[in-house]
Amino acid sequence: MKLISNPTTTFSQALARFEALRARDDETIHELSGSRLWSHGRATPRAVLYLHGYTDSVQQFAQFGDLLFAQGFNVFAPRLPHHGHIDRMHHAHAELTPAALLEWTNEAADIARGFGDSLTVIGLSLGAVLGTWVAEQRADVERVLIVAPAYGTSVIPPRFTHVAAHLFKRLPNLFMWWDPRVREQGGFQYTYPRFSTHTLAHVFILSNQLLEQAQRQPPAARAVWMITNANDFAVSNKICRAFVAAWRAHNTNQIFTYEFPRELGLPHDLMDPADPLVKPDVVYPRLLEMIQQEVHATR
């Protein structure tokens, strides 16, 4: 989906538009879940935009955001629409559509552009699907880190994912527990314990459209990292490999890959240290290395 971008060109423009975005975080939003900016008070040589996961929160990125800020980056983490509510049983996230998600992503990239001379985008899970759109459409982005993208689930073979998504889209929406064993006790105080079958269907359908785009042409961003987790049983790493193959078929040298080894035992959300299975001492330095690496790729 092609959208018209209106990127900020100065730090003051970016800050004003961030403040307008943050004004949407009213008293119904959890104190840890509002849109967040780590600012040095001026444009930095490089800025980072983080796109968080479905039913999750910007809080999953807080510790890594602190690290990036200490390294000299301005860092911007916006709250996904219908996310971050104090009411963990909030249900409006079932209303999310690909159009709404992409409009939000485009706005976030427009805001972030003025925070640095160059922009790196990091997305996790649903955020990585949206980051894929950024990689394909935004030539003003230097690099994109696509981390454990939710292109599909490992439960459904890739060749059936698109068909299954359309089926779930037509059926009545269901709210399902991420962990049926603990139900509403699952997750953290700033996350939702349930997901919407309609929203996941929309995400998988959007992912298929992005794969078709990857088959037609290489990404617009200067460099793209596809980062997978061999221990991730939530999403389909096979579809991740299909994206890489599609992009590389265009004889471009801008695609890079990395997979965290299975023996690390990392969960799908490998960013949030509130989960005792996350290993920040392993994950964060590797991601930082990808962000700081000099880019010599050409489109």
Task: Write the SSE topology.
Blueprint: H1 11-22, E1 36-38, E2 44-51, H2 62-70, E3 74-77, H3 98-113, E4 116-124, H4 126-137, E5 143-147, H5 158-170, E6 175-177, E7 194-196, H6 197-216, E8 223-229, H7 237-248, E9 255-260, H8 280-292
Parallel strand pairs: 2-3, 2-4, 4-5, 5-8, 8-9
Antiparallel strand pairs: 1-3, 6-7
Question: How would you describe the overall organization of this protein?
Answer:
- The strands form 2 sheets. A 7-stranded mixed beta sheet has the order 1-3-2-4-5-8-9, sandwiched between helices. Strands 6-7 form a two-stranded antiparallel ribbon.
- The protein starts with 10 loop residues before the first helix and ends in a 7-residue tail after the last helix.
- The chain is α/β, with parallel strands linked by helices and 299 residues long.
- It has helices at 11-22, 62-70, 98-113, 126-137, 158-170, 197-216, 237-248, 280-292; strands at 36-38, 44-51, 74-77, 116-124, 143-147, 175-177, 194-196, 223-229, 255-260.
- Helix content is 36%, strand content 16%.
- It has a single domain, classed as Alpha/Beta hydrolase fold, catalytic domain (Rossmann fold), CATH 3.40.50.
- α3 (98-113) packs across α4 and α6 (197-216) packs parallel to α7 (237-248).
